[in-house]
Amino acid sequence: MEKPAMKLIDLKKTIGKNEIIKGLNFEIKSGEVFGFIGPNGAGKTTTIRMMVGLIKMSGGDVQILGKSIKNDYKEAIKEVGAIVENPEMYPFMTGMQNLIHFARMLPNVSKERIQEVISLVGLEKAIKEKVGKYSLGMRQRLGIAQALLHNPSVLILDEPTNGLDPAGIGEIRYYIRRLAEEQNVAVIISSHLLSEIELMCDRIGIIKNGELITIQNVHDAADTEQDSHQIQMEVTPAEKAMELLSTEYEIEAVLKSDLISFQSQREEIPNIIQTFVRNDISIYQVEVSRATLEEKFFDLIGENVIE
Ligand SMILES: Nc1ncnc2c1ncn2[C@@H]1O[C@H](COP(=O)(O)OP(=O)(O)OP(=O)(O)O)[C@@H](O)[C@H]1O
């Protein structure tokens, strides 16, 4: 089976006495755009900084194509491109000069690769202009081009739509989708605004207070609103239930304080319950809801995060 592009395994961060990230588990596939959503202070940046080895993990691991960031950093990080803080670009140099400058710091970036990343983010026309003249959206795209120079399998963008106007967001969306679909890159995008990135994502993971609350399939939620349901179950043992969901139904569930939550078709619910019963899993509670992604987000996060 193909290895996930990125896998978080019980990833934790404690600072002082504060448990900031409380054990995150999820996978991102190649060619998938994964939105990492949560209000300010939820723990997105801390998680992303651990994903790229900028800060130490307190527990767990992050694997890139099966390679551990913790134990095999050099090999794992070769497959990662990231914009974690605002990309450091020199405004007095052209886009091209900036890319050449960054390419020099990397092993084996050919001239052809530089041309390739320029076209991947659609900056062919502006690449000979000074970056100081670029719009914020163009600067972000140049940052993405820079992060792609070494041809990574995983691209991580922390709040790439921050401060962009709708046109800028639309452009980023177009190029991100293209990267995922045509180059098979796995893209992880964080944001505190669902509405800004929903349309560019395949799945959305919602984080609050350092915990993953739910993972939603965006297309299911949008296209088959009638059929796709959010299901929460109180089951014991929860880990076994999650494993069965994964192996028998290819459903990735999220565990939060004894409740597992996942998406499924309504018709599948009785089958899932039968599977659990056959496998000696006790079911204490089942809750089925039909909320839209937006409603779910308001519910989970609270309206205070919407600007
Ligand atoms: N070095 C640190 N020392 C103490 N607390 C920290 C430190 N770094 C982060 N935190 C705390 O950890 C929590 C998560 O912060 P983080 O920056 O990861 O959130 P975020 O989801 O990225 O939010 P934002 O969108 O505002 O950046 C916050 O409560 C923050 O105050």
From TrEMBL:
Record key words, sorted: ATP-binding, Nucleotide-binding, Transport
GO terms, molecular function: ATP binding; ATP hydrolysis activity
Domain ABC transporter span(s) in chain numbering: 6-234
InterPro entries according to UniProt: AAA+_ATPase, ABC_transporter-like_ATP-bd, ABC_transporter-like_CS, P-loop_NTPase
Keyword Transmembrane recorded: no
PROSITE patterns reported in the protein's UniProt record: ABC_TRANSPORTER_1, ABC_TRANSPORTER_2
Domain of life: Bacteria
Gene3D superfamilies (alphabetical): P-loop containing nucleotide triphosphate hydrolases
Ranges in coiled-coil conformation: none
Family: Belongs to the ABC transporter superfamily.
Annotated protein name in UniProt: Putative ABC transporter ATP-binding protein YxlF
Lineage of producing organism: Bacteria, Bacillati, Bacillota, Bacilli, Bacillales
